[in-house]
Amino acid sequence: MQDSPREACGVFGVFAPGEDVARLTFYGLYALQHRGQESAGIATSDGRRLYFRTGMGLVAQVFDEESLESLPGKLAIGHTRYSTTGSSKIANAQPIHVMGRHGEIALAHNGNVVNAEIVRQGMEEEGYQFVTSSDSEVIAQMLASAPGDTWQEHWRHCMKRLEGAYSLAVLTPDSLMAARDPMGVRPLCLGRLGPGWVVASESCALDHLGADFIRELEPGEVVRISDAGVETFQAGEPRKRSFCVFENIYFARPDSVMMGKLLYPQRMAMGAELAREYPVDADVVIGVPDSATAAAVGYANESAIPFREGLVKNRYVGRTFIQPDQRIRELGVNLKFNPLPEILAGKRVVVVDDSIVRGTTTPRIVQMLRRAGAREVHVRICAPPIVSPCYFGVDMATRWELIAGQNSDSDGVVDVDAIAAHIGADSLGYLSMDGLMKAVETPEDNFCNACFTGRYPVSVPLQMDKLAFEKAGDSGRRGEPLPVISALDSAFIRTDAS
After folding, report:
1. Are the C-beta atoms of 68 and 75 separated by less than 8 Å?
2. Catalytic site residue 204?
3. Which of 1, 193, 411, 463 has the fewest Cβ atoms surrounding its Cβ within 10 A?
4. What is the pTM of this model?
5. Domain hosting residue 315, numbered range
6. Is 482 domain-assigned?
7. By C-alpha distance, which of 289, 302, 290 is closest to 431?
8. Each residue's pLDDT tens digit in the chain (498 positions)?
9. Same domain flag for 196 and 56
């Protein structure tokens, strides 16, 4: 029902002797629930063996008092998932559990490894057997049996072979490890909890536990925590930093710190830049809750047009396995938002949203506002047009499903008026790339913005498919490796490989 990029996953880990680490992980995952609602899982260690529980659904649906009591130990990792490689089924729920030359490990992964299918084919030829259809198991199997005598050597071996995005929490019987890919695409931070330590996708998870935020992990860095203390080392060769700018726009909670900055004021600044770039005579500014609320406030402040809550969100829609019948399904976006006619009737309305992906939900929101009495509807998007899919941990549709991609010429110029007509708005304005960079106050070359530009930080297969492993298994054999678009041959996908 939501025409926004689908969530990335959330990872969490804790080392806290004497504490109920399963319960701490439960609440850490609860704070990261916005990053994925398909499945959740926790693995713990008592120093000798690992204990697991995974299930489909929300964190609160998977765990209860009895299940948390079955997870003893002083170390734990957890995961909340939206599937970006491999389908949504219990076999792909994380943490992933594998046995290898270095014993058993559990792994929780946020991101996508773009060369996972090629790497997996090579590993299968070497005798590895896989039981899931996710790229996360490729990482886990490789790490558990990597050559070398130390974890530093194991990690360096993996980071040399893996391409793409991976922020990881890894559990062994005696240690917690956290790692970030050499480009730093997805977030990961470190915190202190009394004498213990916490790692999490976002700093908001630390806040809920009363942990102190220490810092974000550097790209290519590994942190290993055990009874012997904290060890950090650089496992990946430095690469061009490519942090996903959509974390700043939409994915992460506004109370999280990323790249050293709190996100809420950045989102307000995006709205203010929008107001400067696309002013309009209007009576009221509203945001599509909750992701665009801060940007709407920023637009209202800059334009001196009053901000109001014109849409009320039902936060539980889409969080159940009960399938709607046809009559309910046809209601579509009406299940998620309810307009307030007392705020909207007779008004010229500016509605601020975070993105338009396929262009399926925004027309319904515009129609809903008009039915509630809005005289004019002016749509403002606090991100540039999305013209290319993401291959690094975000389910953002195919290139041919993207409405901005469909309405752009050979030079990449987007026909904004055509999109405005499609969604039924009186006007439409997208934040420019320059405006976005002003708002985040960070140089553009620190980010991956491939969804806006089509320029990827590394080469990616032309036909990446999150169900590729399952389709190969269904056919009974592995197909030929996917064609790869390189930095030198970019007919459809341009890259900025470095």
Report:
1. no
2. no
3. 411
4. 0.89
5. 264-443
6. no
7. 302
8. 445 555 569 999 999 999 999 999 999 999 999 999 889 999 999 999 999 999 999 999 999 999 999 999 999 999 998 754 444 457 789 999 999 999 999 999 999 999 999 999 999 999 999 998 889 999 999 999 999 999 999 999 999 999 999 999 999 999 999 999 999 999 999 999 999 999 999 999 999 999 999 999 999 999 999 999 999 999 999 899 999 999 999 999 999 999 999 999 999 999 999 999 999 999 999 999 988 999 999 999 999 999 999 999 987 765 555 555 656 655 677 788 999 999 999 999 999 999 999 998 999 999 999 999 999 999 999 999 999 999 998 877 678 889 999 999 888 899 999 999 999 999 999 999 999 999 999 999 999 999 999 999 998 875 555 445 445 544 443 444 444 433 322 322 333 332
9. yes
Q: Is 462 within a domain? A: no
Q: Of the listed 9, 189, 448, 451, which one is catalytic?
A: 9
Three-state secondary structure string covering the chain: CCCCCCCCCEEEEEECCCCCHHHHHHHHHHHCHHHCCCEEEEEEECCCCEEEEEEECCHHHHCCHHHHHCCCCCEEEEEEECCCCCCCCHHHCCCEEEEECCEEEEEEEECCECCHHHHHHHHHHCCCCCCCCCHHHHHHHHHHCCCCCCHHHHHHHHHHHCCECCEEEEEECCEEEEEECCCCCCCCEEEEECCEEEEECCHHHHHHHCCEEEEECCCCEEEEEECCEEEEEECCCCCCCCEEHHHHHHHCCCCCEECCEEHHHHHHHHHHHHHHHCCCCCCEEEECCCCCHHHHHHHHHHHCCCECCCEEECCCCCCCCCCCCHHHHHHHHHHCEEECHHHHCCCEEEEEECCCCCCCCHHHHHHHHHHCCCCEEEEEECCCCCCCCCCCCCCCCCHHHCHHHHCECCCCCECHHHHHHHHCCCEEEECCHHHHHHHHCCCHHHEECHHHHCEECCCEECCCCCCHHHHHHHHCCCCCCCCEECCCCCCCCEECCC
> In whole angstroms, what is the distance from residue 24 CA to residue 345 CA?
47
Same domain (yes/no): 276, 208: no
Cα 42 from chain centre: 19
Shared-domain flag, residues 222 and 353:
no
**455-456/348-353 β-pairing:** unpaired
Q: What is the CATH number of the domain that holds 153?
A: 3.60.20.10
Domain boundary among 443, 458, 482: 443
Asked if residue 463 is part of any domain, the answer here is: no
| 474 found inside a domain | no
Residue found under tokens 């036909």? 463
Indicate if 120 and 207 belong to the same structural domain.
yes
Total count of domains within the chain: 2
